[in-house]
Design a protein that fits this description.
The chain has 219 residues and is α/β, with parallel strands linked by helices. It has a single domain, classed as P-loop containing nucleotide triphosphate hydrolases (Rossmann fold, 3-Layer(aba) Sandwich). The protein is 38% helix and 23% strand. The two termini are 17 Å apart.
């Protein structure tokens, strides 16, 4: 890579998404730093760490840290820096990111809140709707509600509700992250698509990264 990319992820329940993307990018032979700047700090439960206090943990060849100032995001030696911006990032943090992903649930109040936020920050964003009930909900209706007069939404991805995905997200906080072998095929496709967009790499390179990360491998 010729230029470091900072990927900002915000919204609802995006901690697992940050970890999965970091694992795939590392398995594509990239150096990756993940920063948890969220209020909840859920990542500390997901990544195994020693008893002694350390500012940075390296796990599966990905570096993890938390509550890092914006001035320190552009750290040399990393191809990608993934920042968990929490539920409501400040505007300066948003402008420091090369790419933004907003992970949402499908509650109307959340959709309307983040629609206004994206209009306000005037920064291109990819939107991922999690726990979409495809048997009962209309993707077209949500798409229309969110995109009308909002030219800053690059794309909208819909991830159907999956008990396996939700179990993986929750159990990671109790047992630590190991792999994503039990994720739904729909989630795998979303991860592949996002990594393809982020990295702009060949189909085969991204597919290799997904398959290795799924098995819990790293370089």
């Amino acid at each position: 890579m010729s230029k470091q990319k900072i990927i900002g992820i915000f919204g609802c329940e995006q901690t697992d998404l940050c970890i999965y993307l970091a694992s795939i990018l590392e398995n594509m032979k990239n150096s990756v730093l993940v920063i948890d700047n969220s209020f909840e700090q859920k990542m500390r439960f997901c990544i195994p760490r020693p008893n002694e206090k350390m500012n940075m943990i390296t796990y599966k060849n990905v570096d993890y840290t938390a509550l890092c100032e914006r001035s320190l995001w552009k750290t040399e030696g990393y191809d990608y820096v993934i920042v968990n911006l929490g539920s409501w990032p400040d505007e300066k943090s948003v402008t420091d990111c090369d790419e933004l992903i907003c992970a949402l649930n499908c509650e109307k109040c959340e959709i309307e809140k983040y629609r206004e936020f994206i209009l306000h920050i005037e920064h291109p964003v990819s939107v991922l709707f999690r726990d979409f009930c495809k048997s009962y909900m209309s993707a077209g209706g949500i798409r229309k509600l969110f995109v009308d007069e909002n030219c800053f939404v690059l794309e909208q991805l819909f991830l159907p509700f999956s008990e396996a995905d939700e179990c993986s997200r929750l159990m990671m906080q109790f047992e630590g992250y190991r792999n994503f072998a039990n994720l739904s095929k729909e989630f795998e496709k979303v991860l592949f698509h996002l990594c393809r967009n982020i990295s702009e790499q060949d189909y085969k390179e991204v597919l290799m990264g997904v398959r290795r990360a799924k098995r819990g491998e790293c370089f």
